[in-house]
Automatic annotation (TrEMBL):
<feature type="modified residue" description="N6-(pyridoxal phosphate)lysine">
    <location>
        <position position="112"/>
    </location>
</feature>
<keyword id="KW-0663">Pyridoxal phosphate</keyword>
<dbReference type="Pfam" id="PF14821">
    <property type="entry name" value="Thr_synth_N"/>
</dbReference>
<dbReference type="Pfam" id="PF00291">
    <property type="entry name" value="PALP"/>
</dbReference>
<dbReference type="InterPro" id="IPR037158">
    <property type="entry name" value="Thr_synth_N_sf"/>
</dbReference>
<dbReference type="GO" id="GO:0004795">
    <property type="term" value="F:threonine synthase activity"/>
</dbReference>
<protein>
    <recommendedName>
        <fullName>Threonine synthase</fullName>
        <ecNumber>4.2.3.1</ecNumber>
    </recommendedName>
</protein>
<dbReference type="GO" id="GO:0030170">
    <property type="term" value="F:pyridoxal phosphate binding"/>
</dbReference>
<dbReference type="InterPro" id="IPR001926">
    <property type="entry name" value="TrpB-like_PALP"/>
</dbReference>
<keyword id="KW-0456">Lyase</keyword>
<comment type="pathway">
    <text>Amino-acid biosynthesis; L-threonine biosynthesis; L-threonine from L-aspartate: step 5/5.</text>
</comment>
<feature type="domain" description="Tryptophan synthase beta chain-like PALP">
    <location>
        <begin position="97"/>
        <end position="332"/>
    </location>
</feature>
<dbReference type="Pfam" id="PF24857">
    <property type="entry name" value="THR4_C"/>
</dbReference>
<dbReference type="InterPro" id="IPR029144">
    <property type="entry name" value="Thr_synth_N"/>
</dbReference>
<dbReference type="InterPro" id="IPR000634">
    <property type="entry name" value="Ser/Thr_deHydtase_PyrdxlP-BS"/>
</dbReference>
<comment type="similarity">
    <text>Belongs to the threonine synthase family.</text>
</comment>
<dbReference type="InterPro" id="IPR051166">
    <property type="entry name" value="Threonine_Synthase"/>
</dbReference>
Length: 463
């Protein structure tokens, strides 16, 4: 299995190389050269298996001989052993044809743990073999950062720097990043929005001298291994509801497009998915693109679903690569236009291809709050605001012929203010996290200045 760049001008890599490389050296994102195919029998055989076994069977063909079967199994077992639910990703019924896929039972209470816990294990194996030391620099709107810190804290061959937008994450999210006391963890509060944080990370990758000097590595969904780990729960959910004998739809609260792109990969592997519905908050660039054909960023607006306050949606590049017939130079040109002119028109052919795979919708702030309130009253389920965006959009897209599965991407207790404002009840953190509010915080404020951030990283990381 080889991985190629969406911009067509970087060397093809193995799974392990792509995982350790992160952003391709031409600025693109790695994708598999060809997606492995599962037959109906392969898919039927997954029904009822443990999550870990499904994870092994789904990821195995992508991982090639970078990891032995035994090493991959070991990584998967360790990755999910700390989850607070035996099913790992349980399904809960919301209505006659509507299900929630709860992805918040991992250590940091968001779906990011599914991938981050696994890549944490795979990185450790690969670094041990190679005797390498690395510097992880990640951008977060709240959840990736805490999941990355949890997966890599305390390791002596890794420094973790997480850039988050100052004042734009919830208090729980901030404390999850600023209270770990391991010396290899560094929380950086950037004066800017998430797009600025992510642009800074990509600019660091494109500064080859810096990148090579510090051994820069990505744990955002820039990293293909992150996306791959998220493919697994599409299979567990769909087979639990009758796949491959019937198809299912998914609605995905979307920001950086990694989670929904994992669904697209599951579909390309043969999983019978009807619609993949992109659900956005008022930062609705992806919904606007699918409706109008114009991909144009506006300023990031703060919302009660802050993890989705994103306009430059990194993985949309992977979707464009497919929609433009895997033409790397066309994608490189579009990305230049996005950076230089703030957007671009999607060609008619590409738009049609995107619409064949993705539907979309948006939820305003009021609609998000109303959905939290209504679901709480109607079903007793407490939704986090991101999940509520998904549920609102899913309800507009339910086809009576197929079950709709909405991804519940975070635990409501990560966003207690928004949930309390909507329901009158304040969701509590699990007991194991009760000290979060008492521990001292450690954070460095930084301006949105690449040179200064690189200088800080150079000076702070262990040599
Ligand atoms: C809670 C939550 N929901 C949804 C999303 C959107 O996921 P993606 O960026 O993969 O589209 C994020 C962040 O990415 C998130 O943290
Ligand atoms: N919502 C994310 C943004 C980064 O997404 P990623 O999947 O590319 O890591 C977050 O919570 O940080």
């Amino acid at each position: 299995m080889k991985y190629i760049s969406t911009r067509g001008r970087a060397p093809a890599l193995t799974f392990e190389e792509a995982m350790l490389t992160g952003l391709a050296r031409d600025g693109g994102l790695y994708v598999p050269e060809a997606v492995p195919q599962f037959s109906r029998e392969d898919i039927a055989a997954l029904a009822g298996l443990r999550y870990e076994e499904v994870a092994f069977r789904v990821t195995r063909p992508f991982v090639d001989d970078s990891f032995t079967d035994a090493d991959l199994r070991d990584a998967i077992e360790k990755a999910y052993s700390g989850f607070g639910h035996d099913a790992r990703a349980p399904l809960v019924q919301l209505g006659p044809n509507h299900f929630l896929l709860e992805l918040f039972h991992g250590p940091t209470l968001a779906f990011k743990d599914f991938a981050m816990q696994l890549i944490g294990q795979l990185f450790q194996q690969a670094m041990k073999r190679r005797g390498q030391r690395i510097t992880i620099v990640g951008a977060t709107s709240g959840d990736t950062g805490s999941a990355a810190i949890e997966a890599f804290r305390g390791l002596n061959n890794v420094d973790v720097f997480i850039l988050f937008p100052h004042g734009r994450v919830s208090e729980v999210q901030r404390r999850q990043m600023t209270t770990p006391d391991e010396p290899n963890v560094h929380a950086l509060a950037l004066h800017g929005d998430f797009d600025d944080c992510q642009a800074a990370v990509k600019d660091m990758f494109n500064d080859f001298a810096f990148r090579d000097e510090v051994g820069l590595t990505a744990v955002n969904s820039i990293n293909w291994a992150r996306v791959l780990a998220q493919v697994v729960y599409y299979f567990t959910a769909a087979t639990a509801l009758g796949a491959p004998h019937r198809s299912v739809d998914f609605t995905v609260p979307t920001g950086n497009f990694g989670d929904i792109f994992a669904g697209r990969i599951a579909k390309a592997m043969g999983l019978p998915i009807g619609k993949l519905v992109v659900a956005t908050n008022r930062n609705d660039i992806l919904h606007r693109t699918l409706v109008t054909g114009e991909h144009r960023k506006e300023g990031v607006q703060p919302t009660i679903s802050p993890s989705m306050d994103i306009q430059v949606s990194s993985n949309f590049e992977r979707a464009l690569f497919d929609a433009y017939g895997r033409d790397g130079s066309a994608v490189a040109q579009l990305m230049d236009e996005l950076k230089g002119q703030g957007g671009f028109p999607v060609s008619q052919g590409a738009l049609q291809a995107l619409r064949e795979t993705y539907a979309s919708g948006r939820a305003s702030e009021e609609e998000t709050a109303a959905t939290i309130r209504a679901m709480h009253a109607r079903t007793g389920e407490t939704l986090c605001p991101h999940t509520a965006v998904g549920v609102k959009v899913a309800e507009e897209n339910i086809d009576p012929a197929r079950p709709m599965i909405t991804l519940a991407t975070a635990h409501p207790a990560k966003f207690p203010d928004a949930v309390e404002a909507a329901t009158g009840q304040r969701p509590g953190l699990p007991k194991r996290m009760s000290a979060l509010y008492d521990r001292p915080e450690r954070v460095t404020e930084v301006d949105n200045d690449l040179g200064r951030i690189e200088h800080l990283i150079r000076e702070t990381r262990a040599k």
